[in-house]
Give the backbone structure.
Amino acid sequence: MYQYMALPLSAVKGIGPSLEKRLHGRGIDCIGNLLLHLPLNYIDDRRVSPISLLREGESGRIEGRIISKEARGYGKDRQVWIRLADDHGQIRLNFFHAGFMMGDARLTEGRLISVRGVAERWQGQWQMTHPEWCVAEAFEPGYQPHYGALAGLSGKRIGTMIRQALLMLPATATSPLDHILMTQYRMPSLRQALLQLHQPHAADSDMLRHASSRLKSEEIILYLLLMRDKKRQADCPGILLASQRLSSELLEQLPFPLTDAQQSAWQDISADMTSGRRMHRLLQGDVGAGKTWVAALAMASVAGSGYQAALLAPTSVLASQHAITLRELLMPLGLDVALLTGSTRAAERRKILAALASGKISLVVGTHALLTDDVCFDHLALALVDEQHRFGVRQRWALAEKRKPDHQAVHLLAMTATPIPRTLALALYGDMDLSMMRGMPPGRKPIETRVISADKMRPLADGMQRMLDVDGRIYWIVPRIDEDDDGISVDQRVELLKGYFPAAGVLGLHGRMKASVKDEVLQAFASGACKILVSTTVVEVGVNVPEARLMIVEQAESYGLAQLHQLRGRVGRSSEQGYCMLIAGKQASQSSLGRLQQLVRSHDGLELAEADLAMRGSGDAIGTRQHGDAGFRLINLAGDGELIRQWYEHLPDFAADEAMLRFWRPFADSAD
Ligand code: ADP
Ligand code: MG
């Protein structure tokens, strides 16, 4: 089957080079990809209705003989009227801008044509405007799939291409999964499922659901198998940490006791690292749950045992933040933490690399800059990846692979604040063990959240002033206009806010700034030289400024609840009350306002993620970016959780072939 699925689009009748290029632009580069463009719904087109029995406002199929054809108007505005009659009635078909139809030989008087369109009454007569039509012999009664447009091509056009593409799958084509799924689960073959979905003989919803499950199963099972293989590969002897001296010392020096959740996560981790097996663990905890301390304990324990640890962060802002926090915690134990990012100067970088290679430095924090080949360790024992969903599967592993050939496997600890229900997480991150941290450090008050409208700038400014008066700091998140132009809206807001608050040292932060400038801005905000920080969602990830107590988000309705919750998690990081103002855009609909109200009520990231899932498909809960994590094509985490769980529990044993792997996981080896 997959050898046919992999055929280029140009093999399909009717797809030439320019169409092919257009579809390529949307990531559709082979027949199989086109076939995954499933119908949105189906039209019951089994019955031809007499014209006299049409129903006003409803779509109907009729058949009749052309009794007249005339054109009105001139040039491209030419309108064509075709009068059609069957045994019981007549109807007029209207086509605008359709002068070309006058010359169509299939539309001459006396010809029998078949038509589908919405019936209208006008001046006591039936008419249809721009109906679909074909010569009567060409009409095939049945259920017509209705496709969404794609790459600027109409759904109808796509449907024609899909019909042609299906012809390329010979009846003998099978998937490696067909046998198991057909015999043990009574599911159709992959080819049957595709045919049932694209060319159903009946609008039998059970049959359609079954076919769709069959198709999705193909994707899920393959994914789960890959995860299982990863897990098997990951399970091997690992470096055994002999000394808990420094981690115990750190435990005593922490300003507050660990929360129960931190305690139990730390127990999981230290048990792993003293087991002699390699750790491969995902630490999941809501924003602000205190994952950094747990990471610090693991790092202290590694350094205390005479090895090295490296922490990978997705942005330089976050990496430098981590370096600061970790230094505060670990310096008193006599440990230094190096920082390596894209903006580290060449001389400094050389020095750090030499110290890492010789073992003089035991702890390092950095961005992707840590992953390049020239970064070598004397004896790396632990790789930590923060906000792991920001990285592809391979990047996640890349750090752990920086070990010398004669050394044992490096422990991996990935951290994430992305809330996913546990059962689903087990399947999705099936290659890792899971530690979940529920709840928050004590003394944290829930962030008071309000939804306000865009014209309330005056009272909002008053509120901001009150916050500044008590030395609180403020985040202002600007709407994303365009990923590439996010500098513009930031600069505009900075100017506006400088006008209101000339003494607040307003600064802007966005993704296109140089890393070193970003870091400076963040330092200024952390130190208080800047009290209002205008930013795009760059700050979403992990940044920690305890004095920040007010979060303002413009056009809040354009974000997912989970993402807003993450943003909100940037404030209220101390015992002082934090606030979050969600400014709804002028165009915000009633239902999106209702959606935002959930943030006023709920402060549970998991609950909000589930609400997101329920409302808009996997959307932002797993996030558009984050979606790349599992990289599913058909699976929708909202609706398919049950199917995922089912296959996770009963994973069939079979060997995927190369072509199948390449089709479903073309990037499994790269950044995913
Ligand atoms: P996240 O899980 O989002 O990475 P952080 O590690 O940044 O969260 O922690 C958030 C804040 O909570 C930090 O300011 C940290 O100092 C504080 N914190 C962490 N653990 C505790 C604790 N056990 N008791 C009190 N405060 C804590
Ligand atoms: Mg964090």
Notes: Residues 617-629 have pLDDT under 50 and may be disordered. DSSP finds 23 helices and 22 strands in the chain.
